[in-house]
Amino acid sequence: MSDTRFRAWDGECMMTNLDSVTLSELNAGVIYDGDGPEDCATVTIMQFTGFKDKNGKEICQKDIFAMGTERYVVNKRSGCFMADNIRNGHSLTHAREDVRVWHTLMESSLLIEVLGNIYENPELMDKT
């Protein structure tokens, strides 16, 4: 079973050392390196998938990775992680019939290299 870890993007920097993520009916916040809580209305929270790439880098939501000549962005919809092909939009999901494909893909981490993420490297979302 993988660790449940998160990182956050505040519009300017990626916060990777989150001390805690707090959710309640009234508000949400993150504590980063002992500072905070920072209002989650101003940050985007991304969850660690439980997998690492060929260089040992953690793969999180909104990361962009290469596998062969294709690039994928990691998303989470309806509680399931997905790898969406940037060029053609085809999704590999962590749900139902594709669950074996997703796990095979992610467990074959020697084939995957994280290139960046959609916030710090938006140019990687170019379909060409």
From TrEMBL:
Gene3D superfamilies the record matches: YopX-like domains (2.30.30.290)
Annotated transmembrane regions: none
Annotated Pfam families: YopX
Residue span(s) of domain YopX protein: 6-126
InterPro entries given in the database record: CHP16711, YopX-like_C, YopX_protein
SUPFAM superfamilies tied to this protein: YopX-like
Name this protein carries in UniProt: YopX protein domain-containing protein
